[in-house]
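A further point concerns the way the authors explain their paired sequence and structure data. An entry of this sort, consisting of the sequence and the corresponding backbone structure tokens, reads as follows:
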Amino acid sequence: MEKKSLKEIDSIIIKQSAQLQADLRRAFFPFIILFYIKQRPHYQFEIQKKIASLSQAIASAEQQFNISKISVDKEAKINKNIIYNNLKKFEQKGIIDSFKKKSKLGAQRKYYYLTASGNKFFDELVLKRLFPRLSLFMSFMEEALQYDKQGFIQLQKEIKEFPIIFNFKNLLK
């Protein structure tokens, strides 16, 4: 088997990291939308702005702590069609519903909220299935890293030095 150069390995890491970011975004995006709607009714552009702020905060943290070698769009632009398509899909499935309300600026806005079924869906899928699985995965990774004693010791040092970057509470309102 042919050995890869460090440059080739870096290229593979960057491609895999980009794929991982895309996969995570695709997997978590619908749940983030539902989380905001669970808090209170939101209109589409409001959700878009909140997700953009969250994405920007995460991207800044990744760059600050060299978590990613991928260049990040500082504008953290969120395609409104992605939000609309998720809202439409959830509305068709009865997870969310909507109502129209006149804004202070005069135009009507369509506000989305979780239905009773949507609340059950969110609680069951996110709280009882997604979070426990993420916790199990993190436990597995900690356990697996212990087999690489030197790597585990280095990771523990880095985690202890890792400061609280920003307060997510501002992004959850």
Remarks:
- The radius of gyration is 20 Å.
